[in-house]
Amino acid sequence: MLARLSRAFFYRHPAQVLLALIGIAAGVAVVTGVALLRGALVESLDAVSAELVGEQALVVRHPSGRLDVDTYARLVRQPGAPDFVPVLRAAVRSDGQRLEVVGVDPFSGIRTLTGADGTGLSTALFNESGGIPSAVVSASTLELLDSGLDSVLTLDESGRQVRVTAVIRGRPGLDRRLLMDISRAQAMLDERGWVSELLAPPESEAWLRANLGDELLLVTASGQRASARQLTAGMRANLTAMSLLALATGLFVVYSVLSFLMVQRRRTFGLLRALGMTHGRLARLLIGEVLVIAAFGALAGLVASTVLSDQLLRLIAAPVAEVYGQLPPAATNPTPWLYAGIWLAALAAAVAVTVPVMREALQIPPGRLVRSFVVHVLPARKVLALTVLLVTSGAAWVALDARLVAALGGLFLVLAGVIVAIPMIGFGLVRGLARRTATTLPGRALRLLETARGRLSPALAALSLALALAIGMGMMILGFRAAVGDWVTRLLQADMYVSLESRSLAREQVDRLASLEGVEAFSSVRRTRLADGTTLTAYDLPARAWSGFELLGEAPEAYRQFSAGDAVLVSEPLARRQGLAIGDIVELPTPEGPARVPIAAVFRDYSSEQGFVAVSGDLYRRWFDDHAVDSVGLYLADGMTPAELGRRIEGLALGGVAQWITPAGIRRESLAVFDRTFRVSWALAMLVGLIALVALTSALLAQGLERSREHATLRALGLSPARLFGLVTVQSAGLTAVALATALPLAVLIHYALSLLIQPRAFGWSLPAGLPPAEPVLWVVPVALVLGTLTGLYPAWRIGRRPMIEHLRAGR
Amino acid sequence: MADDCDDVCHDDNRDDCRDERQPVLRARGVTRTYHDGNQDIRVLDSVDLEVSAGEKLAITGESGSGKSTFLHLAAGMDLPDAGTMELLGEHVNRLAEPERTRFRARHIGLVFQDYNLIESLSAGENIELVGWLTGRPASVDDIRRLAAELGIDELLGRRPDQLSGGQQQRVAIARALIHQPSLVLADEPTGSLDQASAEQVMQVLSQSVDARGCALVLVTHSETAAARCDRRVRLRAGKLEAT
Fold first, then answer.
1. Quick one: A659 exposed, middle or buried, by C-beta within 10 A (0-12, 13-18, 19+)?
2. Which residue has the higher pLDDT, A444 or B91?
C-alpha cells in the first residue's frame, strides 16, 4: 500500500523525479569518470614492462636514457645473467595522437602475445611487405587512430611509415604503443646500437643489484608505480577535488528535489501519522523512496561514467604525455569493485543528504493538515557561527599542516563555511533589490522569491558554488598561463634552439653549430636522471643568459658560485618538496661517489613538478664525463635570422634529423601544452555548472508547484499568463544574478587559494602575486545570466499553463 | 449608489461605462460539461441568470451542484461549452485570455472560501496587489480608509499566518473591493469560519458592497449568509431554480 502511495506520487511528478535522477547520475558520472581516469594515470608508467615481462618486471636504465648494445652484451655474458628483454622506446606522433614505438626482440623472454586472429607476435613483426616495417597495435589504439588491420600509419613529419600486421586485445598497457621488432625499430629511428632499457624478471633483483654497478639504474615495479603516483599526484588531486565538487553539487539537486517531494506530501504524512503510522514506518517509507531514486540515478551515472572517462582520457592523454612523459591507456579499465563501491557510496550520500528533510517529515504532528510549509531556515546568528567555525577550522588546518591534503581539506571547509552563509547574503541582496523596485513586476517577483528562501537556498548555494568555481578556476588558469608565458619568455634568452630528433648532440656536433657563421654565442643543456631519482640539468650559459633564471630571494653570489662549479641551483618545486633553501647542502650520486654541494639559489620553474638540480656544464662533465648535450641555444649576430641559420644547419649533415625552433615557437608550444593540460579542468568545471543549472531548474519547479495556489490566486486576481511567465522568469534571472553576486568574492577566494596554496603544495611552484584576471568574469557572467534565465523558462511555462481553478481549490 | 457606480464607470475607459439599468451579469444558456474518463458530467445545464447593478444575489445548492463552476465562468476563469456569459455588456467568453484577465482585474472582485491570501505578502500588500496587477495602484489613504472600514487597519503590517480566519477573510474582502469593482464574486466566504466570525464577515461584506453600489454574487451553503442578499437562486444538478 505504501509503495503504491509513493509510486502514484512519483508518477504525478515525473519532471521532479527525472531531475533527481539527473542530479545523482551526473554527480556519480563525474566522480566515477575521474576515478577511472586517476586509475589510468597511475597505471600508465609501468604498463609496458608489465605487459611484456609481468607485473613485477624490473627495468635497467642508463641515466642518459640510452644504453649502448655493448653494455647490454657485457651484462648478458656475465655468469648467472637473467633473460633480459632489450626494449627501444621512442615518442612519435600519428594522426595527431601521441604514440610510442616499442621495439622488442620477439625471441627474448617476453610473455606470449598473440594477435586477435591468433597470429603469433614473431610472425606478425616479421611480416614485412613493400619495405614498410610491421607493427602490432592494440584494438583501442587502432580505434583512436581510426585505422584497421593492414593499414599503414604515417609517423611524424618525417614521413616514416609502419604497417599494422596484427591487432591485440585485452592488453591496456600496450595502448598507444606500436610494438615493433627491435632491429627494425632501431633502423627506422636511426638508433642502431642503442636500446632504451632492459627488462628483467623479478627474481633477478639480487643478481642485478650485485652486478649492475654504479653506471646503471635499477627500477623496480613498485618504484615505477610510486614514481607514477608521485609524478601525477598534483593532477590527480586536482581532478579528485573537482569530482567531489561535482558530487556535492549533484547532492544539492537531490536535496532540493527530495525536500520538494516531502513538502508536497506534508498533508498526506500528517494524515498517515493521524491514522496510526509510526515514525519508524514513515522513516522506512522515505528512506526506501530515496534509495530507489538514488539506485537508478547512480546506475545511470555509472553507465555514463564509462563514456565520460574515455572522453576525459582523450582530453588528458596529450598533456600527460607532454608534461609527464607517460602514455596513458587508450581506454580506462573499470572494475566491478569500483562500480559497486561508488554505487553504494552514492546511495549512502543520497540518504545522508536527505536526513534533514526526513527529520522534518517525521516531526509533522499527527493530524496537522498544514497546507503550506515554510522550510526551516537557520537563524542568522547560527549561520554566522557555523560559517565562522568552518572557516576558522579550514584556515587552521591549512596553517598547521603543510600537506596538499590539508590545503584541499581546508579549502573545502572554508568553501563549506561560505556556502552556508551564501543563502543568507544572497536573499539579503534579493530583499534589498525588491525594496528598490517594489512597485514593478521584477520587484514583486523578487519579493515573492525572497519569501521562498527555504526552498531555494540549496539551489542558490549550488549555483553560486558552481559559478565561483568556474570563475575562480578560470582566474587561476589564466593567471598561471600568464605566469608561464612570462617565465618562458624570460628563460629563453637565445635566438634559436637546436636539437636532434630522438637523440642527443655530441660535443663535435655542438662545436660545428657554435662555429657557424652568424652565431655569436651559444648555450647548451643536458638533462639526466641520477640513481636516486633526482633530475640533474647541466647548463653551459653565456653571462647574458643568466637573467633567464628568476631567483627567489636574494642571492647576489649565485652566478659566480654556479659558474665556478662551487654550488648548484635548485628549482622551486624541488626546494619545496625537499625543504631546501639557499646554503643547504645537496648530496648527488655520481660515478665518483656522492658529491656534496651547497645551494647557491632557488629559481622559479614551471617545467617539472618534481623539480631538478641545475649545475654548470663543467661540473657535470667533471662528474659524469658525459660531453653530449640535449639541445643548444644559439645567439645570433646582427643581421642573421633564425630562418637563414636554420637553412645552414640543415645543410650541416649532423647525422640525425636536426630540429630548430625560435623562443616564440617554444612559447607558443608551451602555452599550447598548458592549454591542453587544463582542458580537462574546464570540462569538469562545465559539468559542475551544468549540474548546478539542474539544481536551479529543480528548485524553481519545486517552488512553482509548491506555490501553485498562490500563482493561481494571482491569475484569478488579474495576472495574465504572460506576466506570470515573466514573473517566474524574472525570479530565475534574479536568482542567477544573486548567485553571481555572491560567487564573485568566492571566486577570488578560490583563485587565491588555488594559486597560493594548492599549486605550491600540489605542483611545488608558486605564482607571482597579483590581481586576478578579469576575463573569466566577462565570460561567465553573461553566459550564466542567459543560461540561468533560460533555465527558468521551462518552470515558467509549466506554471503559466497550469489550470488556475484546480489550484485555487488545492488544499481544501 | 448610482453615483458610486458612475464613479466606477467614469474611472475606466468611456467604452466600459455602462447604463445602470443594464444587468452587470447576464448568463444565457450557460452549459459546462466536464469529462471524467469516458463519462461526461454536465455541471451546468442551460443556466439563464441576470444580476443587476447593486443587487446582491445568493446562489445556494448541494455540493457539486455547479455553484462554484458558475462563479468561475462568471469571472472568466473558465469558459462555457455553450451559451454566453455577459459582464457589463461584454461577452466574456468571446474575449481572448489576456483580455479576460485584464477585464477581471478591472471589474471583478473575488473572495474565496480559503481567503487565498499571498502568504509572502503582508495584509496591506495583499490589498495593494490588485492595484499593481491593474497598473492603477491604490493610494495609501484609500487602503487605510478601506481597512478601517473593515476593522483591519491595525493589522496591515501582519502576514496572513499571523491573522485569524476572520481577519484573513476581511483582508480578502478589502482586496476584492479596493479597485472599486462593478461585481464581487464570493465563493463560500464564510465556509471556513466559525459562526460568530461568519456573521461578522458577512455583515462587513454586505455593508461594503452596499456602500459601493457594486453587485454581489454569493455562493453559499449558509442560510444566514443567503438571507443577507436581495435575491436567492438555487442550483440543483446544474439547473437553476428560483427560490
1. middle
2. B91
d(CA A103, CA A177): 10
Residue from A673, A532, A683, A553 nearest A608 by CA: A673
CB A23 within 8 A of CB A350: no
Total residues belonging to chain A: 812
Residue among A439, A444, A716 whose CB faces B77 most closely: A716
- B238 pLDDT higher than 80: yes
**Residue A366 pLDDT > 60, yes or no?**
no
- Alpha-carbon distance A16 to nearest alpha carbon in chain B (angstroms): 24
Nearest to A372 among B101, B119, B130 (CB): B119
Helices (H), A492-600: 507-514, 558-563, 572-578
Dihedral of CA A599/A602/A605/A610: which sign? Answer: positive
pLDDT value at position B28? 93
How many CB atoms are closer than 10 A to CB A7?
12
Largest CA distance in chain B: 55
Distance between CA atoms of A611 and A534, rounded to whole angstroms?
8
Confidence class of residue A232 from pLDDT cuts 50, 70 and 90?
A: low
Q: What's the pLDDT at B10?
A: 37
pLDDT digit string, tens, across residues A152-209: 888 876 678 888 888 888 777 788 888 898 888 888 887 888 888 888 888 888 898 8
Distance of alpha carbon A563 from alpha carbon A545, whole angstroms: 12
Residue A742: CB atoms within 10 Å: 27
Domains of chain B: 3-242 (3.40.50.300)
Closest partner CB to B75 (pick from A714, A716, A812): A716
In this structure, the number of other CB atoms found within 10 A of the CB of residue A566 comes to 14
Residue count (chain B): 243
Q: Say how far apart CA B49 and CA B47 lie, in whole Å.
A: 6
E strand or H helix at A770, and its extent? none
ipTM: 0.75
Q: Which residue in the block uniquely carries the three cell numbers 500563482?
A: A711
Nearest CA in chain A to B184: A717
Q: What is the pTM of this model?
A: 0.70
Task: Select the residue from A263, A717, A723 to test the B interface by mutation, using most B Cβ atoms within 10 A.
Answer: A717
pLDDT of A397 reads 93
Contact A482, A773 (CB under 8 A): yes
CB contact B95 to A (< 8 Å): no
Residue B114 in contact with partner chain A when CB distance is under 8 A: yes
Q: CA A329, CA A306: separation in Å to the nearest integer?
A: 14
